[in-house]
Amino acid sequence: MGLRSIQPRKQRKWRKEAPLHIRRKFMGGHLSKNLREKYGRRSIPIRKGDNVKIMRGEFKGIKGEVIKVDLKKCKIYVDGVTIKKTDGTDVPKAIDPSNVMITDLALDDKKRVAILERGMKE
After folding, report:
1. What pTM was computed for the model?
2. Spatial separation of the C-alpha atoms in residues 88 and 105, rounded to whole Å
3. Which of 6, 70, 100, 112 has the fewest CB atoms lying closer than 10 Å?
4. What's the CA gap between 31 and 36, in Å, rounded?
5. Alpha helices (runs of H) in 17-119, residue ranges in sequence order
C-alpha cells in the first residue's frame, strides 16, 4: 500500500477506487461482548446471514439479519430496515457497517470457522 496522503479528498478517492479485496476490509463490524470473549477478537467482516444490532443513526436499537452486502457502495442492508419512497413503496435502507454490532454469526462456511478459530486464545 505504501504511504498515502492525509488530504481528505485523496482519502475519499482512495476509498472510492479501492479494489474489492481491500473493500472487504472496510466491511468490518464490531463483535458483541460475548462473541468477543468467545473468539478473542474485536471485529470481523460482515457477511450475509449475520445478525446485527444498529448502534447509530435513525434506526438505532433495531436488530435484524443482514440480507445484502454491497461491496461497491461499502454498505449493508438489514432485514426490517426500510424507508418509504414518495410513491409509497418500501425499499431497504443502506447502513454503514461501522454503525452496527454483530450479535450472531452465520457459521455455515468452513473457511469462516477457521478464521475465527485462528484468533482464539488457548
Report:
1. 0.86
2. 33
3. 6
4. 6
5. 20-26, 33-39, 110-118
Here the cell at position 119 is 484468533
Residue 79: name the closest of 43, 107, 104 by CA: 104
Give φ, ψ of 13 to 5 degrees. Answer: -65, -45
pLDDT digits (tens, 9 = 90+) for 71-122: 999 999 999 999 999 999 999 999 999 999 999 999 988 988 888 888 676 5
Residue 103, amino acid: T
Going by C-alpha positions, the residue among 111, 105, 94 that lies closest to residue 44 is 105
The residue type found at 122 is E
Distances (CA, A) of 62 to 48, 78, 100, 110, 114: 17, 9, 10, 29, 30
The number of angstroms, rounded, from the C-alpha of 70 to the middle of its chain's C-alpha atoms is 10
Interatomic CA distance for residues 36 and 15, integer angstroms: 27
Grid cell locating 32: 458483541
